[in-house]
Amino acid sequence: MTTAISLKSVTKKFKDFQALNEISFDIQEGEFFTLLGPSGCGKTTLLRLLGGFEQTSTGVIELFDEKIENLPANKRPINTVFQHYSLFPHLTVHENVQFGLKMQGVAKAERVKRADEMLALVQLEKFADRKPNQLSGGQQQRVALARALAPRPKLLLLDEPLSALDLKLRQNMRLELKKIQQQTGITFVFVTHDQEEALTMSDRIAVMSAGHLQQLGTPSEIYEEPVNEFVADFIGETNLLNVNVLKKGEHSADVTIQAYDTEHHDSAVIQVPYFNRLFLGPTAKLSIRPERITIGPLTGETPLTAIVEQSIYMGTDTQYIVTLNTGCELLIRSQNITSEKKTFEQGDKVNISFDLSTARLIRG
Amino acid sequence: MKHSISYYPGTKPITILCLFILYTPLIVISLYSFNSLRSITTWGEFTFDWYIKAFSNPAIQNATMNSLLIAVLASSIATLIALAAAMGMLRGAPLRKQKIVVGVINLPLLLPEIVVAVASLIFFIAIDMTLGLGTILLAHIVFCIPFAYLPISTRLKDIKQSFDEAAYDLYASRWQAFRHVTLPMAMPGIVSGLMLAFVVSLDDFIVANMVAGPGSSTLPMTIYSMLRIGLTPEINAISTILLLISILFVTASWWCNRSSKSTT
């Protein structure tokens, strides 16, 4: 595989504010790559550095082995789908899509042909002669995509392009974006704060926080094997329990779930897998996804018993909030597989169990 | 709680009184420009004679040509300068004393016209310039700039910088981004500013009168000098035309700015 983009120790400072800190990673050609993080994490700054709208403070950006960090935006073979589209209001849809080609000096006949192709790709041929303000949000979004794709960029940047759309449309556009990316084979760098969006569309995700790269991996790696508390908490929902590490094996460790306060006691010893560096003592957290926990009627002595605090029916699932015998709260989601499946009510005493291989030890 | 202004007692009579005081003289002049009699108190019959007569008067013809020439040139040049100034103020990196610079650009709006007129005259004499159409043109360019600057800068402020970024992203050079994106998007403001400047130049009497040389009369100056002989229906006719041009341009200027609002 060829490397499309290579970031080497890229930093960006705005006066006293360090927006990006020593960011280094590669993006492969043809990849759907997502920069994910909460607002202010530096993902948009990184996108603007790639697009050429901001200058790197230090570090190197290579596009197919050519240094581009000092090229202005109009000299980079990279196009952007902007968050608010920024379609030119005085030009028709067709003229908007032609714009990049026109600036590159492509002959008119070729320009028109390529714009027609792009509008066909996003299924907006019928709207070619309209002005952008005569289109709906979803249609404007497609025009912005067609406009950015028309010059056949080596890299397409998408700056939270779905955030202005309503839920249903957003879900449709996710599938469509992914489809168009596969059809065109262009490398996409997608910025979002929406983890669901990131998980459903991306080949790989870079999770960012406070100007640092937290974790880079496929959606399942990020979800299943978060390297730290931030990633575990940010991607999906999770329960983070303080644990005491008693013994370290090669891939698993013996731990107890710490008591919430002095009135409670630590849980019995359980064995869980770990993937990162770990220290003995009360230094780690156990991350368990709510859907990986099984809730059942109380039967004899088990390591974990709990009392149901809240039971919320949500259609596909029932969500429980329970208090463990160690005093900590736990979020559990159980699928409503049959309509008459027994649910638990507030105050019920229950048994909690989980497949230990799905729990993760994380340094706290 | 906000009330419509008509909620307060007396709104209607005061409004009518104001409109009456403002517009009755104008309406009377306009009406009597079509009166076949020379009187402005008795109505004869409807006629276009005074318009025909006014336009066949060589002094008025000459003055009209002067006025139009100066208004076209002064408003065009002032608009160009105002556009450059607005781009510099709103699109460049902020200047250290930006507020003061904007204040200086707009100063002619606040200065008493007679002061501008006298100062211009003294200046032209000091640099030994021959008074004539050239001096009127220069003076008009200067005081037309703020009239063109205001609508242009208002419009430019409404155009988000992200459009520039989109243009650069799509391989436009700075000039291409200006030519293909900023300029067409700012056009309603530019046209509005141009028309406002045109009317201001066309209607100016005080400055033109002060810095004009012999034989370089503008239309308002000619109307004034004819008045000294006496009020004639010809003057009514010319005034009515000036009035119509002004209303037309100011309305068009307003309309340009208004219709452009919906595109942002």
CATH class of chain B: Mainly Alpha
What is the count of structural domains of chain A? 2
By CATH reckoning, the class of the largest domain in chain A would read Alpha Beta
Roughly how much helix do the residues of chain B carry, as a percent range? Answer: over 70%
Most strands sheet of chain B: none
Global outline of chain B? globular
CATH superfamily (homologous) name of the largest domain in chain A: P-loop containing nucleotide triphosphate hydrolases
Oligomer: heterodimer
Q: Note the overall shape of chain A.
A: elongated
Sheet with most strands: strand arrangement of chain A: 6-7-8-3-9-10
- Our count of domains of chain B comes out at 1
Helix percent band of chain A: 10-25%
The largest β sheet of chain A comes out as:
6 strands, mixed
Strand content of chain A: 35-45%
Instruction: Give unreliable regions of chain B as ranges.
Output: none
